[in-house]
Amino acid sequence: MTNRIVVLGGGTGGTLAANRLRRDLGDEVVITVVDQDDDHLYQPGLLFVPFGLSRPQDLVRSRPAQLHDGITYRTADIERVDLGAEQVLLSDGVTLAYDVLVVATGARLLPEETEGLTGPGARETVHTFYDLDGATALEGALSRFTGGRLVVNVVDMPIKCPVAPLEFCFLADWYFTERGIREQVELIYVTPLDAAFTKPVAARTLSGLLAEKHVELVTEFNTGEVDGTGGRLVGYDGREVPFDLAVVVPLHGGAAYVDRSPGLGDEFGFVPTDKHTLQSTAAPNVFVIGDAAAIPTSKAGSVTHFEGETIARNVVRFLAGEALDASFDGHTNCFIESGFGKAMLIDFNYDTEPLPGHYPSGVGLPLLSPSRLNHLGKLMFAWFYWHSLLPGRDVPGLTAAMPTAGKHMPVPTRS
Ligand SMILES: Cc1cc2nc3c(=O)[nH]c(=O)nc-3n(C[C@H](O)[C@H](O)[C@H](O)COP(=O)(O)OP(=O)(O)OC[C@H]3O[C@@H](n4cnc5c(N)ncnc54)[C@H](O)[C@@H]3O)c2cc1C
Question: In which band, very low, low, confident or very high, does the pLDDT at 363 lie, cut at 50, 70 and 90?
Protein backbone atom coordinates (compact mmCIF):
# COMPACT_ATOMS: atom_id res chain seq x y z
CA MET A 1 0.00 0.00 0.00
CA THR A 2 1.23 3.51 -0.77
CA ASN A 3 1.95 5.46 2.41
CA ARG A 4 0.26 8.82 2.90
CA ILE A 5 2.27 11.75 4.27
CA VAL A 6 0.34 14.86 5.27
CA VAL A 7 2.38 18.03 5.84
CA LEU A 8 0.60 20.73 7.86
CA GLY A 9 1.88 24.16 6.81
CA GLY A 10 3.38 25.26 3.51
CA GLY A 11 5.87 27.78 4.92
CA THR A 12 9.63 27.28 5.23
CA GLY A 13 9.61 23.92 7.03
CA GLY A 14 6.59 22.34 5.34
CA THR A 15 7.84 23.22 1.86
CA LEU A 16 11.40 22.00 2.33
CA ALA A 17 10.33 18.84 4.19
CA ALA A 18 7.79 17.93 1.49
CA ASN A 19 10.35 18.54 -1.27
CA ARG A 20 13.02 16.45 0.46
CA LEU A 21 10.53 13.61 1.07
CA ARG A 22 9.35 13.68 -2.55
CA ARG A 23 12.97 13.47 -3.72
CA ASP A 24 13.83 10.67 -1.27
CA LEU A 25 10.66 8.58 -1.59
CA GLY A 26 9.29 9.38 -5.05
CA ASP A 27 6.06 7.54 -5.90
CA GLU A 28 6.40 5.27 -2.85
CA VAL A 29 4.34 7.87 -0.97
CA VAL A 30 1.51 10.33 -1.58
CA ILE A 31 2.42 13.73 -0.13
CA THR A 32 -0.21 16.38 0.61
CA VAL A 33 0.69 19.85 1.89
CA VAL A 34 -2.00 22.01 3.53
CA ASP A 35 -1.83 25.74 4.15
CA GLN A 36 -4.44 28.40 4.82
CA ASP A 37 -3.40 30.63 1.90
CA ASP A 38 -1.37 30.58 -1.30
CA ASP A 39 1.15 33.32 -0.47
CA HIS A 40 4.58 32.19 0.70
CA LEU A 41 6.21 35.13 2.50
CA TYR A 42 10.01 35.43 2.80
CA GLN A 43 9.87 36.55 6.45
CA PRO A 44 13.53 37.65 6.85
CA GLY A 45 12.76 40.37 4.28
CA LEU A 46 10.24 41.99 6.66
CA LEU A 47 13.12 43.63 8.55
CA PHE A 48 14.06 45.71 5.50
CA VAL A 49 10.55 46.91 4.51
CA PRO A 50 10.19 49.71 7.14
CA PHE A 51 13.49 51.22 5.96
CA GLY A 52 12.52 51.17 2.29
CA LEU A 53 15.19 48.53 1.59
CA SER A 54 12.74 45.81 0.43
CA ARG A 55 9.48 46.11 -1.46
CA PRO A 56 6.59 44.10 0.04
CA GLN A 57 5.62 42.65 -3.34
CA ASP A 58 9.11 41.19 -3.79
CA LEU A 59 8.81 39.06 -0.64
CA VAL A 60 5.78 36.98 -1.65
CA ARG A 61 5.59 34.06 -4.09
CA SER A 62 3.06 31.33 -4.83
CA ARG A 63 3.15 28.49 -2.26
CA PRO A 64 2.30 25.62 -4.62
CA ALA A 65 4.94 26.86 -7.10
CA GLN A 66 7.62 26.10 -4.46
CA LEU A 67 6.61 22.42 -4.30
CA HIS A 68 8.11 19.72 -6.52
CA ASP A 69 5.91 18.02 -9.12
CA GLY A 70 3.93 15.14 -7.68
CA ILE A 71 3.12 16.88 -4.36
CA THR A 72 -0.54 17.74 -3.82
CA TYR A 73 -1.29 21.20 -2.43
CA ARG A 74 -4.55 22.07 -0.61
CA THR A 75 -5.61 25.53 0.51
CA ALA A 76 -7.64 25.15 3.71
CA ASP A 77 -7.64 26.08 7.37
CA ILE A 78 -6.66 23.16 9.59
CA GLU A 79 -9.48 22.51 12.04
CA ARG A 80 -7.86 19.81 14.18
CA VAL A 81 -5.78 16.66 14.26
CA ASP A 82 -7.28 13.42 15.56
CA LEU A 83 -4.22 11.50 16.72
CA GLY A 84 -6.20 8.35 17.53
CA ALA A 85 -7.88 8.12 14.12
CA GLU A 86 -4.71 9.38 12.33
CA GLN A 87 -6.71 12.02 10.50
CA VAL A 88 -6.59 15.77 9.90
CA LEU A 89 -9.88 17.64 9.69
CA LEU A 90 -9.96 20.72 7.48
CA SER A 91 -12.36 23.66 7.80
CA ASP A 92 -13.89 22.89 4.38
CA GLY A 93 -15.11 19.56 5.76
CA VAL A 94 -12.42 17.42 4.09
CA THR A 95 -10.69 14.73 6.17
CA LEU A 96 -7.14 13.68 5.34
CA ALA A 97 -5.96 10.31 6.63
CA TYR A 98 -2.21 9.93 7.17
CA ASP A 99 0.42 7.30 7.89
CA VAL A 100 2.92 10.02 8.79
CA LEU A 101 2.07 13.56 9.82
CA VAL A 102 4.61 16.40 9.57
CA VAL A 103 3.65 19.43 11.66
CA ALA A 104 5.10 22.63 10.18
CA THR A 105 2.57 25.28 11.15
CA GLY A 106 5.09 27.65 12.71
CA ALA A 107 4.39 30.31 15.31
CA ARG A 108 1.46 32.75 15.44
CA LEU A 109 1.50 36.40 16.54
CA LEU A 110 -0.82 37.06 19.50
CA PRO A 111 -1.00 40.89 19.83
CA GLU A 112 -4.49 40.64 21.40
CA GLU A 113 -2.90 38.94 24.44
CA THR A 114 -1.24 42.22 25.53
CA GLU A 115 -3.46 44.93 26.95
CA GLY A 116 -3.71 47.92 24.63
CA LEU A 117 -1.58 46.49 21.83
CA THR A 118 -4.46 46.29 19.35
CA GLY A 119 -6.32 49.26 20.89
CA PRO A 120 -6.16 53.04 20.30
CA GLY A 121 -2.85 54.06 18.74
CA ALA A 122 -2.34 50.78 16.86
CA ARG A 123 -0.87 51.56 13.43
CA GLU A 124 -0.50 55.20 14.56
CA THR A 125 1.98 55.36 17.43
CA VAL A 126 2.28 51.57 17.90
CA HIS A 127 3.60 49.35 15.13
CA THR A 128 5.21 45.99 14.39
CA PHE A 129 7.34 44.70 11.52
CA TYR A 130 6.57 41.02 12.23
CA ASP A 131 3.91 40.73 9.52
CA LEU A 132 3.66 42.17 6.03
CA ASP A 133 0.86 44.67 6.72
CA GLY A 134 2.62 45.86 9.85
CA ALA A 135 6.02 46.25 8.16
CA THR A 136 4.39 48.16 5.29
CA ALA A 137 2.52 50.53 7.62
CA LEU A 138 5.69 51.07 9.66
CA GLU A 139 7.55 52.27 6.56
CA GLY A 140 5.10 55.19 6.37
CA ALA A 141 5.32 55.89 10.10
CA LEU A 142 9.13 55.91 10.06
CA SER A 143 9.25 58.23 7.06
CA ARG A 144 6.97 60.69 8.92
CA PHE A 145 8.97 60.45 12.16
CA THR A 146 11.02 63.59 12.66
CA GLY A 147 12.29 63.07 16.20
CA GLY A 148 11.49 61.84 19.70
CA ARG A 149 11.63 58.50 21.53
CA LEU A 150 11.48 55.37 19.36
CA VAL A 151 11.08 52.30 21.57
CA VAL A 152 11.62 48.75 20.25
CA ASN A 153 9.96 46.25 22.57
CA VAL A 154 9.87 42.45 22.76
CA VAL A 155 6.82 41.51 24.84
CA ASP A 156 8.00 38.00 25.74
CA MET A 157 10.07 35.07 24.48
CA PRO A 158 10.08 32.90 22.46
CA ILE A 159 9.85 34.94 19.27
CA LYS A 160 10.78 34.20 15.68
CA CYS A 161 14.33 35.27 14.87
CA PRO A 162 15.25 36.68 18.31
CA VAL A 163 17.95 38.92 16.81
CA ALA A 164 15.53 40.71 14.43
CA PRO A 165 14.45 43.42 16.97
CA LEU A 166 18.14 44.17 17.64
CA GLU A 167 18.76 44.41 13.92
CA PHE A 168 15.83 46.84 13.75
CA CYS A 169 17.62 49.09 16.30
CA PHE A 170 20.90 48.99 14.36
CA LEU A 171 19.14 49.77 11.06
CA ALA A 172 17.14 52.58 12.72
CA ASP A 173 20.43 54.16 13.86
CA TRP A 174 21.67 54.00 10.24
CA TYR A 175 18.33 55.20 8.79
CA PHE A 176 18.03 58.31 10.97
CA THR A 177 21.73 59.11 10.42
CA GLU A 178 21.13 58.96 6.64
CA ARG A 179 18.16 61.30 7.05
CA GLY A 180 20.33 63.69 9.07
CA ILE A 181 18.08 63.57 12.16
CA ARG A 182 19.87 60.96 14.34
CA GLU A 183 20.56 63.62 17.02
CA GLN A 184 16.79 64.23 17.34
CA VAL A 185 15.95 60.54 17.84
CA GLU A 186 16.36 58.58 21.07
CA LEU A 187 16.49 54.83 20.44
CA ILE A 188 15.53 52.48 23.28
CA TYR A 189 15.56 48.65 23.23
CA VAL A 190 13.24 47.11 25.85
CA THR A 191 13.56 43.36 26.42
CA PRO A 192 12.25 40.82 28.94
CA LEU A 193 15.73 39.22 29.00
CA ASP A 194 18.43 40.18 31.51
CA ALA A 195 20.76 41.12 28.63
CA ALA A 196 20.61 42.01 24.93
CA PHE A 197 20.52 38.31 23.98
CA THR A 198 20.24 34.91 25.62
CA LYS A 199 23.79 33.60 25.05
CA PRO A 200 26.47 35.31 27.22
CA VAL A 201 29.27 35.85 24.67
CA ALA A 202 26.88 37.14 21.97
CA ALA A 203 24.99 39.20 24.60
CA ARG A 204 28.23 41.01 25.55
CA THR A 205 29.04 41.78 21.90
CA LEU A 206 25.48 42.92 21.11
CA SER A 207 25.25 45.10 24.26
CA GLY A 208 28.55 46.70 23.21
CA LEU A 209 27.15 47.40 19.75
CA LEU A 210 23.95 48.93 21.20
CA ALA A 211 26.07 51.21 23.43
CA GLU A 212 28.35 52.15 20.51
CA LYS A 213 25.27 53.20 18.51
CA HIS A 214 23.75 55.04 21.49
CA VAL A 215 20.77 52.72 21.82
CA GLU A 216 19.60 52.59 25.44
CA LEU A 217 19.07 49.03 26.75
CA VAL A 218 16.22 48.35 29.22
CA THR A 219 16.29 44.75 30.51
CA GLU A 220 13.98 42.46 32.51
CA PHE A 221 10.95 44.47 31.38
CA ASN A 222 7.78 42.37 31.18
CA THR A 223 5.28 44.42 29.20
CA GLY A 224 1.81 44.36 30.78
CA GLU A 225 0.25 47.17 28.75
CA VAL A 226 0.97 49.18 25.64
CA ASP A 227 -0.73 52.56 26.01
CA GLY A 228 -0.81 53.95 22.47
CA THR A 229 -2.59 57.19 23.26
CA GLY A 230 -0.60 57.92 26.44
CA GLY A 231 2.64 56.86 24.70
CA ARG A 232 4.00 54.45 27.34
CA LEU A 233 4.84 50.82 27.92
CA VAL A 234 3.77 49.69 31.38
CA GLY A 235 5.62 46.77 32.94
CA TYR A 236 4.07 44.22 35.30
CA ASP A 237 6.44 45.58 37.98
CA GLY A 238 5.02 49.12 37.55
CA ARG A 239 7.95 50.53 35.57
CA GLU A 240 7.02 52.74 32.61
CA VAL A 241 8.89 53.46 29.37
CA PRO A 242 7.57 56.52 27.48
CA PHE A 243 7.57 56.58 23.67
CA ASP A 244 6.58 58.70 20.70
CA LEU A 245 6.71 55.67 18.40
CA ALA A 246 6.71 52.05 19.59
CA VAL A 247 7.79 49.07 17.48
CA VAL A 248 6.48 46.02 19.34
CA VAL A 249 7.17 42.33 18.74
CA PRO A 250 3.99 40.67 20.06
CA LEU A 251 3.70 37.51 22.10
CA HIS A 252 4.02 34.31 20.01
CA GLY A 253 2.11 31.04 20.33
CA GLY A 254 1.58 27.93 18.24
CA ALA A 255 -1.15 27.53 15.60
CA ALA A 256 -4.73 27.71 16.93
CA TYR A 257 -5.72 24.19 15.75
CA VAL A 258 -3.07 22.69 18.06
CA ASP A 259 -5.24 23.68 21.07
CA ARG A 260 -8.20 21.92 19.44
CA SER A 261 -6.21 18.69 18.91
CA PRO A 262 -6.17 16.69 22.16
CA GLY A 263 -2.72 15.42 23.09
CA LEU A 264 -0.82 17.28 20.38
CA GLY A 265 0.49 20.49 21.95
CA ASP A 266 1.58 22.22 25.15
CA GLU A 267 -0.20 25.15 26.85
CA PHE A 268 1.37 27.61 24.36
CA GLY A 269 0.25 25.66 21.29
CA PHE A 270 3.75 24.38 20.50
CA VAL A 271 4.31 20.67 19.94
CA PRO A 272 6.54 18.74 22.41
CA THR A 273 9.21 17.06 20.31
CA ASP A 274 12.37 15.02 20.79
CA LYS A 275 15.11 17.62 20.23
CA HIS A 276 17.46 15.17 18.47
CA THR A 277 15.08 13.05 16.31
CA LEU A 278 12.28 15.63 15.73
CA GLN A 279 9.67 12.96 16.46
CA SER A 280 6.79 14.38 18.49
CA THR A 281 6.10 13.02 21.94
CA ALA A 282 2.38 12.88 21.00
CA ALA A 283 2.61 9.90 18.61
CA PRO A 284 5.46 8.03 16.90
CA ASN A 285 4.15 8.82 13.39
CA VAL A 286 4.04 12.59 14.03
CA PHE A 287 7.21 14.61 13.28
CA VAL A 288 7.69 18.35 13.81
CA ILE A 289 9.83 20.88 11.94
CA GLY A 290 10.44 24.59 12.44
CA ASP A 291 8.89 27.09 14.82
CA ALA A 292 6.02 24.75 15.78
CA ALA A 293 8.38 22.49 17.76
CA ALA A 294 8.76 22.96 21.51
CA ILE A 295 12.52 22.41 21.52
CA PRO A 296 15.29 24.66 22.92
CA THR A 297 16.44 26.18 19.62
CA SER A 298 15.90 29.65 18.18
CA LYS A 299 12.77 29.92 16.06
CA ALA A 300 14.64 30.60 12.82
CA GLY A 301 14.59 29.62 9.18
CA SER A 302 18.20 28.44 9.43
CA VAL A 303 17.25 25.99 12.19
CA THR A 304 14.28 24.83 10.10
CA HIS A 305 16.63 24.29 7.16
CA PHE A 306 19.09 22.23 9.22
CA GLU A 307 16.21 20.21 10.70
CA GLY A 308 15.12 19.29 7.15
CA GLU A 309 17.89 16.71 6.77
CA THR A 310 16.98 14.94 10.03
CA ILE A 311 13.23 15.00 9.55
CA ALA A 312 13.39 13.60 6.00
CA ARG A 313 15.82 10.88 7.07
CA ASN A 314 13.65 9.95 10.05
CA VAL A 315 10.37 9.80 8.14
CA VAL A 316 12.07 7.43 5.67
CA ARG A 317 13.46 5.33 8.54
CA PHE A 318 10.12 5.32 10.36
CA LEU A 319 8.31 4.03 7.26
CA ALA A 320 10.99 1.36 6.83
CA GLY A 321 10.64 0.30 10.48
CA GLU A 322 14.25 1.33 11.24
CA ALA A 323 15.72 3.11 14.28
CA LEU A 324 15.59 6.92 14.08
CA ASP A 325 18.62 9.14 13.60
CA ALA A 326 19.19 11.20 16.77
CA SER A 327 21.83 13.53 15.36
CA PHE A 328 20.10 16.93 15.20
CA ASP A 329 22.32 19.15 17.36
CA GLY A 330 20.26 22.37 17.45
CA HIS A 331 22.47 24.07 14.84
CA THR A 332 21.51 27.76 14.43
CA ASN A 333 23.10 30.27 12.10
CA CYS A 334 22.01 33.93 11.98
CA PHE A 335 23.22 37.01 10.17
CA ILE A 336 22.68 40.11 12.31
CA GLU A 337 22.38 43.28 10.24
CA SER A 338 24.36 45.92 12.13
CA GLY A 339 23.76 48.95 9.89
CA PHE A 340 25.95 50.96 7.49
CA GLY A 341 26.29 48.00 5.09
CA LYS A 342 27.65 45.56 7.66
CA ALA A 343 26.37 42.48 9.49
CA MET A 344 27.54 40.05 12.13
CA LEU A 345 27.17 36.28 12.01
CA ILE A 346 26.48 33.93 14.91
CA ASP A 347 26.59 30.14 14.79
CA PHE A 348 25.75 27.85 17.69
CA ASN A 349 23.93 24.69 18.80
CA TYR A 350 22.40 23.10 21.91
CA ASP A 351 25.81 22.72 23.58
CA THR A 352 28.02 25.46 22.09
CA GLU A 353 27.17 29.13 22.45
CA PRO A 354 28.00 31.65 19.68
CA LEU A 355 31.80 32.02 19.62
CA PRO A 356 34.22 34.27 17.72
CA GLY A 357 36.26 32.94 14.79
CA HIS A 358 35.16 32.13 11.23
CA TYR A 359 32.37 30.10 9.56
CA PRO A 360 32.27 27.39 8.27
CA SER A 361 36.07 27.03 8.57
CA GLY A 362 39.16 29.14 9.32
CA VAL A 363 38.87 31.03 6.00
CA GLY A 364 35.08 31.66 6.05
CA LEU A 365 32.84 34.50 7.17
CA PRO A 366 33.84 36.37 10.34
CA LEU A 367 31.83 35.41 13.43
CA LEU A 368 30.60 37.91 16.03
CA SER A 369 32.14 40.88 14.28
CA PRO A 370 30.45 43.35 11.89
CA SER A 371 31.69 42.95 8.31
CA ARG A 372 30.69 43.87 4.77
CA LEU A 373 31.03 40.21 3.75
CA ASN A 374 28.34 39.14 6.23
CA HIS A 375 26.02 41.89 4.98
CA LEU A 376 26.40 40.54 1.44
CA GLY A 377 25.73 37.05 2.88
CA LYS A 378 22.49 38.33 4.46
CA LEU A 379 21.36 39.85 1.16
CA MET A 380 22.24 36.68 -0.78
CA PHE A 381 20.25 34.60 1.67
CA ALA A 382 17.00 35.60 -0.12
CA TRP A 383 18.20 33.99 -3.36
CA PHE A 384 19.45 30.97 -1.45
CA TYR A 385 16.04 30.67 0.31
CA TRP A 386 13.98 30.42 -2.88
CA HIS A 387 16.44 28.44 -4.99
CA SER A 388 18.18 26.09 -2.60
CA LEU A 389 16.65 25.97 0.87
CA LEU A 390 12.98 25.57 -0.14
CA PRO A 391 13.69 23.02 -2.92
CA GLY A 392 15.46 20.98 -0.22
CA ARG A 393 18.90 20.91 -1.84
CA ASP A 394 21.99 19.88 0.09
CA VAL A 395 24.51 22.72 0.04
CA PRO A 396 28.21 21.83 0.35
CA GLY A 397 29.69 23.46 3.48
CA LEU A 398 26.24 24.23 4.92
CA THR A 399 25.49 21.10 6.86
CA ALA A 400 23.04 20.30 9.63
CA ALA A 401 25.85 19.54 12.09
CA MET A 402 27.42 22.70 13.53
CA PRO A 403 31.03 23.05 12.31
CA THR A 404 33.71 23.65 14.94
CA ALA A 405 36.62 24.32 12.55
CA GLY A 406 37.46 28.03 12.56
CA LYS A 407 35.84 28.72 15.93
CA HIS A 408 37.80 29.94 18.92
CA MET A 409 36.62 27.26 21.31
CA PRO A 410 36.91 28.12 25.01
CA VAL A 411 39.88 26.51 26.75
CA PRO A 412 38.54 24.03 29.34
CA THR A 413 39.36 25.21 32.87
CA ARG A 414 41.07 22.77 35.25
CA SER A 415 39.26 22.03 38.43
C1 LIG B 1 10.66 39.72 11.00
C2 LIG B 1 11.26 38.35 10.86
C3 LIG B 1 12.58 38.22 10.48
C4 LIG B 1 13.15 36.95 10.37
N5 LIG B 1 14.47 36.86 10.02
C6 LIG B 1 15.06 35.65 9.92
C7 LIG B 1 16.43 35.55 9.53
O8 LIG B 1 17.10 36.54 9.22
N9 LIG B 1 16.97 34.30 9.49
C10 LIG B 1 16.25 33.18 9.81
O11 LIG B 1 16.81 32.08 9.77
N12 LIG B 1 14.94 33.26 10.18
C13 LIG B 1 14.33 34.46 10.24
N14 LIG B 1 13.01 34.55 10.59
C15 LIG B 1 12.29 33.35 11.06
C16 LIG B 1 11.81 32.44 9.95
O17 LIG B 1 11.06 33.14 9.00
C18 LIG B 1 10.96 31.33 10.59
O19 LIG B 1 11.68 30.75 11.66
C20 LIG B 1 10.64 30.24 9.58
O21 LIG B 1 9.84 30.76 8.57
C22 LIG B 1 9.95 29.07 10.30
O23 LIG B 1 9.42 28.16 9.38
P24 LIG B 1 8.10 27.34 9.74
O25 LIG B 1 7.85 26.45 8.59
O26 LIG B 1 8.25 26.76 11.08
O27 LIG B 1 6.96 28.43 9.86
P28 LIG B 1 6.34 29.33 8.70
O29 LIG B 1 7.31 29.53 7.59
O30 LIG B 1 5.83 30.55 9.39
O31 LIG B 1 5.14 28.47 8.12
C32 LIG B 1 4.04 28.10 8.88
C33 LIG B 1 2.87 27.91 7.93
O34 LIG B 1 1.78 27.28 8.60
C35 LIG B 1 0.58 27.84 8.10
N36 LIG B 1 -0.50 27.63 9.07
C37 LIG B 1 -0.50 27.95 10.38
N38 LIG B 1 -1.67 27.63 10.94
C39 LIG B 1 -2.43 27.06 9.99
C40 LIG B 1 -3.75 26.53 9.94
N41 LIG B 1 -4.54 26.49 11.01
N42 LIG B 1 -4.21 26.05 8.76
C43 LIG B 1 -3.45 26.07 7.63
N44 LIG B 1 -2.18 26.56 7.63
C45 LIG B 1 -1.68 27.07 8.78
C46 LIG B 1 0.92 29.31 7.88
O47 LIG B 1 0.06 29.93 6.94
C48 LIG B 1 2.37 29.25 7.41
O49 LIG B 1 2.47 29.25 6.00
C50 LIG B 1 12.38 35.80 10.66
C51 LIG B 1 11.03 35.93 11.00
C52 LIG B 1 10.47 37.19 11.09
C53 LIG B 1 9.00 37.33 11.47
Answer: confident
Ligand 1 pocket test: which of 35, 248, 302, 336 has the largest number of ligand atoms within 8 Å of its C-beta? 35
Backbone angles phi, psi at 36, to 5 degrees: -80, -15
Check residue 414 and give its pLDDT.
52
Which of 291, 305, 375 has most ligand 1 atoms within 8 Å of its beta carbon, as the pocket-test mutant? 291
pLDDT band at 244 (very low <50, low <70, confident <90, very high): very high
Given a cut of 70, whether residue 413 has pLDDT beyond it is no
Residue 371 has pLDDT above 90, yes or no: yes
247 and 268 both lie in a single domain: no
Same domain, 177 and 52: no
Task: State how many domains the chain has.
Answer: 2
Q: Is residue 356 part of a domain?
A: no
CATH code of residue 7: 3.50.50.60
What gap in Å lies between CA 103 and CA 292, rounded to an integer?
7
Domain span at 248: 111-252
The span from the CA of 177 to the CA of 215, in Å, is: 13
Query: Which pLDDT value is given to residue 415?
Result: 46
What pTM did the predictor assign?
0.96
